[in-house]
Every structure is written in C-alpha cells, then in structure tokens.
Specification:
three-stranded antiparallel beta sheet, binds 6-phosphogluconic acid, 21% strand, 31% helix, 239 residues
Length: 239
C-alpha cells in the first residue's frame, strides 16, 4: 500500500523528507539519491542549503538525476544547473558523488552512457540498478521524470534511459525508464500546490483507464515502497 504523507506546509513536508534521507544515512555508508527537476525540488534544495549544510553527511550521499533536459549545464533549464545553484554550491559534497546527465551531449549517446553508469555504480536488484531513494515530481499532465503522456510507451522501454521529447516545446530530454524507477528501494513523489490536486487524485488511486493516460500512474515499486509527500493543497481532493 502506498504511504500518504500530507503536510500543512511545504516546510513541514521538507522536514519530513529530510528525516527520510537522514534515516537512510543512519543505516548505510552511502545513499544513492536520484533527484527530480522542477520547482518543487528547487524549494527542497534551498531548504537543505539553509538548514542542513552541516548536519547531513553529504559525503555519504551520491546524487543522480531521473531526467535532464538536453541543454548545457549552465542553461537556465538544466536540472543539474538548478541543483548546482540551489544545493551543490551550498554544501560540501565530493565531486565524485555527483553523477550528472550530460545534457550537452548527443541525447541518444547520453542515454546509453548514463544507463551504463547506472549499471556500473549502483547495486543491482533483480539484475537492474537500484536507487535507495527515487525522488519524483508530478507534472500537470501526469508526466513524471521526463516520460510524458504522448510518449507513455517509453515507460516500458528495455533500456535504463531513453530519449523523450517535451510535448509542447519539442525539447529533447534524457529520462530514466519505468523499470529503473520502479526498481528503487524507496520511491517518493514530492507534490505541492492546488494546481496538482486533480493529477494527485488521478494518480494516487488510478482507475484502469487513467493508468493508460498518465506515466505517473505507472509508478509501482517492483520490491520497494512508494510514499507520497504532499502539502494540503495538493492533497485537497483526496482528503
Ligand atoms: C523536470 C522534472 C519533472 C517535474 C515535474 C513537476 O525535469 O521537469 O523532472 O518531471 O518533476 O514537471 O515539476 P514541478 O515540481 O515544477 O511542478
């Protein structure tokens, strides 16, 4: 059963999410955390930079990305660039712990390269790379990572990563596939704001037809757990 965590404020949500990371760090020498892009994680990264520069052993955290826009790291739309600005530049984390998707590379080549890295550096579970914590966002259209509804078939791709395309801008993205996302130990959705309430409702307990529409509805842990971290606005249609 998915775990629903609903918070009265973003700060309460971020505190709880931080507790999840700290809890994992207590029991492990290293935590492989896969980050999401977007505005919600940006606020979490600022929270960590402001409140947890020192007390989180960042040298024990290895950072990966669930998706990246195919732009250079200094581009304003780069997920890595956003993470660097709001988190990496503010904390003491070894460079070798940061595994960015090279958005400046050829998308097809980068999807392959990053997929090989995941196979090489992550523990394998059922023969597939497995993250300790998978951070996911939920798009207004039901996308997650960079698997969009118009390309929902990419979720089932055989590889570790695929090249996706943004439905409106046509921007190329490198994204993890469903089999990697679902192979994580702790899968989490981080969703805030009333604008996401409908999509939260559709994706928390999706009817069968909704599963066909929304990639986020296909998130189903192969062996781990799934937790929703919602503020009360995003949860307003399910409480
Ligand atoms: C990205 C993200 C994407 C994001 C959702 C929600 O690269 O944009 O990985 O999947 O999580 O679009 O974004 P917000 O947090 O900005 O609503």
């Amino acid at each position: 059963m998915d775990k629903l965590n609903i918070f009265s404020s973003k700060d309460e949500l971020f505190k709880s999410y931080t507790d999840l990371l700290v809890d994992q760090l207590k029991n492990k020498n290293q935590v492989n955390l896969c980050l999401s892009g977007g505005s919600t994680p940006k606020a979490l990264f600022s929270y960590w930079a402001e409140n947890h520069k020192k007390d989180i052993p960042w040298s024990k955290v290895r950072l990966f990305w669930g998706d990246e826009r195919c732009v250079p790291p200094e581009h304003e739309e780069s997920n890595f660039g956003m993470t660097k600005k709001y988190l990496l530049d503010e904390i003491d984390i070894p460079q070798e712990n940061v595994f960015r998707i090279l958005g400046e590379n050829d998308p097809v080549e980068e999807a392959y390269r990053y997929g090989v890295i995941l196979d090489d550096v992550l523990p394998l579970v059922n023969g597939l790379p497995s993250f300790d914590i998978m951070m996911l966002g939920l798009g207004d259209d039901g996308h997650t990572a960079s698997i969009f509804p118009h390309q929902i078939h990419l979720w089932e791709s055989e590889g570790n990563c695929v090249v996706a395309t943004h439905p409106i801008s046509g921007q190329k993205r490198v994204s993890l596939t469903g089999r990697i996302i679902n192979n994580s130990q702790i899968i989490t959705f981080l969703v805030t704001g009333a604008g996401k309430a409908t999509m939260v409702k559709f994706n928390i307990t999706p009817a069968s037809e909704e599963k066909k529409l929304f990639p986020a509805a296909l998130v189903k842990p192969a062996h781990g757990s799934l937790g929703w971290f919602l503020d009360s606005d995003a949860a307003e249609l399910i409480i």
